[in-house]
Amino acid sequence: MYKNITSGKYEFLDDKGSFRISKAEDTSYLYFPVASEKGLKCSVTPNLGGDAMVNQETFLLEPVSVENLHNNKNGRNFWLYMDNGDVWSAVGTSAEQESKKFTMEQDESLVSAGFMWHTATRTSNQYGVMAEITSFVPVDLNAEVMSVTIKNISAEAKVVAPIAAIPVFGRSADNLRDHRNVTSMLHRISTIEEGVLVKPTMSFDEKGHRLNNNTYFVLGFDENGGKPESFFPTVESFIGEGGSFSKPRSVYRQEKGVSAGEKFDGVEAVGGLKFAKTNLAPGESVSYTVLIGVTDDEAEIKAVAERLSTKSAVDAELENTKKYWTNKVNVDVHTGNKEFDEFMEWVAFQPFLRRVYGCSFLPYHDYGRGGRGWRDLWQDCLALLFMEPDDVRKMLVANFGGVRMDGTNATIIGDGLGNFIADRNGIARVWMDHAYWPLKTLLLYIHQSGDYEILKEKVPYFKDSIVHRGNLVDKSFETKGNYQYAEDGEVYKGSIIEHLLVQNLCAFYEVGEHNTLRLRGADWNDALDMASKNGESVAFSYAYAGSLKELSMLIKQFSVSLGIDTISIASELNTLLDSYVQLYDSVSQKKELLEKYCKLVEGNISGKQTAIPVSTLVTKLMEMSDWFTNHLNSQEWISGEKNQGWFNSYYDDSCRRVECFDADDAKTRMMLTGQVFAIMGNVATDEQVKSIAEAADRYLYKEAIGGYRLNTNFNEVKMDFGRMFGFAYGEKENGAVFSHMAVMYANALYHRGFAKEGHKALKALSDASMNFNVSHMYPGIPEYFDAKGRGKYPYLTGAASWYLLTMITEVFGVKGEAGNLVIEPALMKEQFDEEGKASIALNFAGKRFTIVFTNSSNSEVGEYSIKNATLNGKEIALDGARVVIAREIIETLDDSNEINVEF
Ligand code: G1P
């Protein structure tokens, strides 16, 4: 049936990433996301396992972790009972199909998928039937659609009785282990003409039970809107005494089921829908729709039923859904490698997935309770700045409202703008990298848009009981909306510049014994969480050294662009500017100064502001950055063999330097994070970048598993550093190829002009991702590759935003500079097609641009330079080696434009 499809390889169906792959069910841990923007988030496996939820409290299907994917048999199912007594599961989950796995009698199967839709096709030659099940969630609904088509592929007529069976969990994920049985007693189940409803009486939470308003539903229709004949609404009626979800008695014994209008209390629920028997002539097909969802407004159930009861309505909705998501992903690349271009479609789609799912709701991500972390929030904006720039300004301004006056921030961000969740238990954990990301994202925004005005926006500060940078809890704190107040009782608001100063200045002074920044609860690497007393993140010290300079330059450009000579900041902040170079050398004086400031902003602040001359600020920040850069460079460099060398990344809780060179390679310790930020933060000189790249190739690079690993094997469970050392080497933060850091390494290299080295890092990641036989994952970039090269934690990773950003701004070199469009490519020779062309299509300043690069002489990066460029056919003057198109010109252009760049 699917003989023409190469097994173990994706076959792409269009240029928007849609693909198909045969026998996906023979690969473990595979799942695919389908979701809406309304809140319903689902995962679907090749056998239609996976789960579906709106939030932690509202799980429609039973929550699953990856290990459940092969063990649980209570996923979505669609059974066929045939007139001769044969039983077949259209999703491949019957005891019989399980027993035929790995034999010649195994069903043939195929998964096809694109953005937010998934089709599982399955054929049984033995029974002469084929099923195609498409799953998707209409963009504006909390309902997943399963559109099922059954076809008789035998030479004889068949009579089939179809039974859809969707077990409904209908409660909080917490109840999986916490009172699972007791919470089933809350269930109130009813049958209506279209299906089964489950409305628990309350949501069970021993901290405070609440009345429940949600109704979970499973509805079904035949292709003309005909309703099911009868129902199996409970687990006991569906599987029967002694039965199971892979051998349900009701199906095998052809039991009758109950009619609409019945009620069942206090038991586990199933949306078991039995349809009328149907005759299928040879080659004939019949379709059914199953809708599963949740709502707090029962009227909506009727509306959903009416809207999607017929096959034609479902087909139209599927097309809408596909179009909606395809339009969102509006950055398309064309290189000499078609597979890579398709990979990029998924990479560009991933930031949307993380916006929808957060970091919690796919099977590998079996932690957290929803919401997004601070650094993820900012980094996801990087990609959205290219794809959905309209909403980003509002989002950025609102996000700054999460900063506390002591430079730390709210760590969990709920749905909606500016919804910062105060730590409910007063447990303070400070991630010392958090202040780094806002400036990065804001800089990209300002360069893309030229909108320096945003820096003047007045934004409140976040306040809760956590004070003194997470070191103290203010027991007397009374919440008045989690805002920082001034003495006059008003909410205090400061400009975004002020917020950036608060974040970066506080960071600068929080140092450990080696006068580099304290690690605190952790930095980017969440798993470095056991060195909060004495640990230091030199890695992020490099990063902040770079930020201080960037902030200085930004303030300068801001003042020039808007003609401003002074900037007003909270008077308290003067304390952090009242310092000098000698003080920077003193760990104790720095601590004292920070402590003094934290005391000033502990309760209500004065509300007074001081006007500081721009020149003073600019010089001060530059002085700090220079001092820090020199200090770090002279103190932290580790020389290796030959030309190799690298920067130390951390000090552990025993105050010991973490990295070292040893002539015995096995004892050398090197980490990637420090190298990334030493390069990105301009602490490393160009010579040092070369040495780092050589050392990284020697100690960290493993092409087959994605390239640059996060660290060498320390062969030690370092209890004075972090949980990562408890992980097996090669897993997650302990030495896996952790895509996010590997991409940032590439970004940093490109940015410093090391395109070949950067390309090597990016290519290793994309090659490994797309090698299905090793990565065992659907297209896209995973959070990491394990020691064998399996892609883990797919879809939800900051790596995607950074990969897209790097491709656009560094590889294709298309970037904003104070709102102007600059083109300065660093494409490798191998990235052009046979005609010497490569192109990128994207939106900039509200206009669409297709930018085509022609490298007719087949030259390598570094050898070519731009010879001429045209905009919509008209030649444009070059600005040295770059193309620069001024904002004023862009504003006069039509919606769709073409730029040709020739080398
Ligand atoms: C994940 C987290 C991210 C963290 C990283 C390393 O990475 O979401 O915040 O910095 O682990 O611990 P990601 O999801 O970006 O791949």
TrEMBL record:
One of its GO terms (molecular function) is carbohydrate binding. One of its GO terms (biological process) is carbohydrate metabolic process. Keywords: Glycosyltransferase, Transferase. The keyword Glycosyltransferase applies. Residues 324-554, 619-812 form the Glycosyl hydrolase 94 catalytic domain. Residues 55-310 form the Glycosyl hydrolase 94 supersandwich domain. InterPro entries: 6-hairpin_glycosidase_sf, 6hp_glycosidase-like_sf, Gal_mutarotase_sf_dom, GH65_N, GH94_catalytic, GH94_Enzymes, Glyco_hydrolase_94_b-supersand. This is Cellobiose phosphorylase. The lineage of its organism: Bacteria, Bacillati, Bacillota, Clostridia, Lachnospirales.
